[in-house]
TrEMBL record:
Family matches, as InterPro entries: OxRdtase_Mopterin-bd_sf (IPR036374)
Domain of life, per lineage: Bacteria
Organism expressing this protein natively: Cupriavidus basilensis
Name of this protein: Oxidoreductase molybdopterin-binding domain-containing protein
Length: 164
């Protein structure tokens, strides 16, 4: 759950933000993917999962989900075409409509077990683009607590280079 949104408005008001499309920017190809394209890419299935915030507060249970790996979408936009030095300096922000951002490094996504569990969920418990989750929902399934790096109503993925 987007922590800022839940703290100020309560989980039930999340529905004011909805997304069933995604723009990927900062790579050789800017991609705009609609609901049909995202559903067509969604080849990952799993469950159950318990979503908890960092404090340990229970947020929700998910019995079954279907989604697409963020790395798969990044590769469609040309991540692998970048020189390796540039990839290693990349920071990836998954952006929700309420401006909440979940951050990942290239190393984390492509060189750790975390990356294979960073999923854009397109179907939860049989409901496609669940309106209670704002439609497109990000979850990082290999994090110790799933709440801090989850985002509801995801609308974009931005790739930036780390500047020291």
């Amino acid at each position: 759950m987007n922590e800022a949104l839940s703290a100020s408005t309560g989980e039930s008001n999340v529905r004011q933000y909805q997304s069933d499309a995604l723009t990927i920017s900062g790579l050789p190809q800017t991609l705009n993917l609609d609901a049909a394209a995202l559903a067509g890419c969604a080849d990952m299935v799993g469950g159950p999962a318990t979503i908890q915030c960092y404090s340990g507060r229970h947020v929700r249970e998910v019995r079954h989900w279907r989604g697409v790996r963020v790395t798969q979408l990044l590769d469609l936009a040309g991540m692998q075409a970048l020189p390796i030095g540039r990839r290693k300096q990349s920071v990836v922000a998954v952006v929700a409509k309420d401006a909440y951002r979940c951050l990942f490094t290239w190393h984390e996504l492509y060189n750790t077990a975390v990356g294979s569990g960073v999923i854009l969920v397109v179907e939860k418990d049989g409901v496609a683009f669940d309106p209670d989750l704002g439609g497109l929902h990000l979850v990082s399934l290999r994090d110790l607590k799933l709440g801090p790096r989850q985002a509801l109503a995801v609308s974009g993925i931005e790739v930036r280079q780390w500047q020291a």
